[in-house]
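Honest question from a wet-lab person: if I give you the sequences of every part of a complex, can you actually get the arrangement of the whole thing, not just the pieces? Trying it with mine:
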Amino acid sequence: MADLNYVAPTTAEAAVKALLAGGGMARVLAGGTDLLVQMRSGRLTPETIVDVKAVAGAQGIRQEAGGFVIGAATSGAVIGEHAALSMAWPGLVEATNLIGSTQVQGRASLAGNLCNASPAADSVPAMIAARAICVVVGPNGTREVAVEAICVGPGKTSLAAGEFILEFRLPARPARSGDAYLRSIPRTEMDIAVVGCGVNLTLDTDGTCAEAHVALGAVAPTALLVEAAGAALVGRKLDQEALDRLDAAARAACRPIDDKRGTVEYRTRIAGVLARRAVAIAWQRAGA
Amino acid sequence: MSDLPEKSLFRVVGTRPIRPDGVDKVTGKAAFGADIHLPGMVIGKILRSPHPHARIVSIDTRKARALPGVKALVTADDFPDLPDVDFEAGEGAATLRDIAHNVMARGKVLYDGHAVAAVAAISPWICDEALALIEVKYEVLPHVIEVEAAMAADAPILNENQVTQGLGAKPDTPSNIAKRTVLNRGDLEAGFAEADMIVEGRYRTQPVHQGYIEPHACAASMSADGQGEVWSSSQGQFVIRALCAKLMGAEMADIKVTPAEIGGGFGGKTTVYLEPVALALSKQCGAPVKMTMTRDEVFRATGPTSGGVIEVKLGAKKDGTLVAAQVELKYQAGAFPGSPVGAACMTALACYDIPNFLITGWDVITNTPKVAAYRAPGAPAAAFGVESAMDELAERLGIDPIVLREKNGVRDGVKASYGPTFKDIGFQETLAAAKAHPHYSAPLAPGVGRGVAAGFWFNIGGESTAAVHITEDGSAVVVSGNPDIGGSRASMAMMAAEVLGLAVEKVRPIVGDTASIGYSMLTGGSRTTFATGMAVTQAAEKVVAELKVRAARTWDVAEDNVAWRDGEAICLDPAKDNKPLSLAALAGHTGKTGGPISAEVSLNAQGAGPGFGVHICDVEVDGETGNVTVLRYTAVQDVGRAIHPAYVEGQLQGGAVQGIGWALNEEYVFGDDGRMQNSGFLDYRMPVASDLPMIDTVLVEVPNPRHPFGAKGVGEVPIVPPLAAVANAVRAATGIRMMELPISPPKMRAALDAVAQAAE
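Yes, you can. This is the full assembly:
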């Protein structure tokens, strides 16, 4: 059996150093709910595991400049129990809490859900719709990257050697804003999204849509920010024409595959359905 | 005719005490198959075929054997090649040769996951390394998965020596069709000619797995003198003993099998996969060997039950009277013959009295794991077809679906479609209870549909042994040879307590190993409460007779002057003034009255009562996503008499849930490469608790007079109706008859779209 090195650095610099030292065979461990499963199944055989949970700033939620900063390794359970975050971003929190089971929620993190780079990750469309920013730490210091720029394909990220995500920043929330996330699964829980849809919008005082962001999961190699779907809503009220345009824009963005979880045709249709339903929830939240 | 005591006279039977195995199970203390740990134990693992069909050209094990830490390595060469003779194991048939070849491939691999070699090493990681060092050269062959493709004349042939049985003349060309089964009665053509209404349909189901939570696990130790011991989780320690002995070429008396606690079986733990391999590895290295499967292995190499095609044609008069029926069943057997199509043929029309019918069954081998028994093997898929057709008939004739079933439903004195004449059955009572249930008449919200379906299962008796031992303080130990998969320890203790007149807490039920109690058939066929319960009752009655003898001796009265009431000997001799003698008092003096008091009874129980169920299901269909939600579900069943009603209700609920899973989302998905694509619980979608409403149950009690307390088997019937009950409810909700299972959201949405398009 190959040796396995485990390190749990307390500073970002030390974590970067450990990742670089491990070369291509080092993996970041946050909650481990994907990593350990992949190691056990033999799909991954890392030589070094860098546990980032003890790195300063990697856990916890704080309010800053009107927005929120969420430590990248903060567990789903902690996120779900944060009252102010749940009030401001209910869709993002709900999406995060859909990952796995109650037990998995005790460990699963946003960074893990993102960097596992599954197109079906539940929190990712919600974060993209929220216009969340990743704070990436690496050998050349710190950089800020939009969430949708992290995944480049199934199982692949744009992070360079030695880089990891330290925290996520959520922008300040204007008045009359709401978000929502819905996923389609054949069951009611303990499942993986056949399609996922995150929506984040802000209304004008007259009740028309001022800004809208729609993101889809599991319909392409990576989660997609569907700008045309957001644009279908801006300047409009929640009427049938807007919903039809939204539905069409969501479907047009899909590039799914046929697999054991769903067909191309099914996924494409459901993308439109979920977009309409998620917009209805986000709209209601924004107006409330 | 029944001389059964009135139910009101029972003190214990019919009550709901806490199960004797419950505390250890909820605290995690119970030892399941994987909890066995033996001194000096090593770990065994299996190398499995990545191909669905291939010839094994060579297996080079040299590098693996040379790896430090590897203790043993076996292939088919390490097992005797066995003859092609049938081995009967209760539920499910196979030949010894096929069982052996399924445990370890010989010459050919026949499905993705088929075992080709096994290693034992000092750690699981060294096992993995060793497996990777075994070099197997395969000549990959074309494969076939679907049943009708396997039946086609140009199909790849799995077994060149197999010709179809049951065709009359023996064919001279090999075929994947192992056997044809035919059941018929009357004149089919004349029957259909009489019909005012004929419905026809072609239904399909996919293979589904039993889905027990506990993966197969065992430990085994083989001594240098050829004596072996096995600890394993199974539905029958005796069938494990028999198969281990046969596959190892040993005497049965030289193999001792201790049953571990079992984490679900549902029929799937009635044969061997790991045990003979662990014994062979242990024989080679001398150390005990432990083996546990991963979930991936469980899906790819054990279970499932058949997928198939079910064609049904029913003919009826205007008033609903069935006059003719034709049913054709094509079942996937997996890599070796023995699909449950025979039982499917026998159960398909068993609920109804039809003068003219023809049932044809085809047992077809395919490049998929060999099927194992699964709760009412064969019946659910057949009932899916027949009960969907009954629903169609009811709708077209404008007759209430329960009334249609009452009109044609079997009753005492009717000759069953599979041969015998029904006696003491409760189908009509069950239908009446379903019709009268508030669920059946509850108003339906818009968009909600209601379906009903019926189901039948034989239930069996068979050979059982049980012993009752009275302890020195007057409590009792009940030993049986049947693993407890459904609360049987509780019912054994209750039946013994009833006879002995003891509180049930004073009776400790034990599941014995193969050396501690006489032979019992496995726990399956819904036989244990009936057959082993009969043995327990008779053993307890023998003990009571002996207690009366001891009291008579103590009092110096004639034996017939002693009665046994409420756990005490009562002196009936008017000339004597003896106070009653309690069981404890008698137990404390056995040394002076004739020695220890215990009794063992071995019997072959006859007269099991067939079971019938009727299920009512309400569903709502999301017209956009195709998701089907079960809103309300009621399972009504004739259970004979419920010994422990809570566990009987649990059986009805569990069966219904498994059937709902089968109807809605469960299926084996194979890629074009013939490999299973969803060999885990994430993508093999069994229902989760939040998917379902509480399953309501109604226990209809039409007692079986051939059991001391009136019990009938209950565990299998409840998985038979749900497939059609759900599909019939979907039909009511959407107007669409779903003829292929599972009714998964993509399939449902496609069906809705097809209807919408046709309407445009």
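Two things worth pointing out. The mean pLDDT of chain B is 96. DSSP finds 21 helices and 28 strands in chain B.
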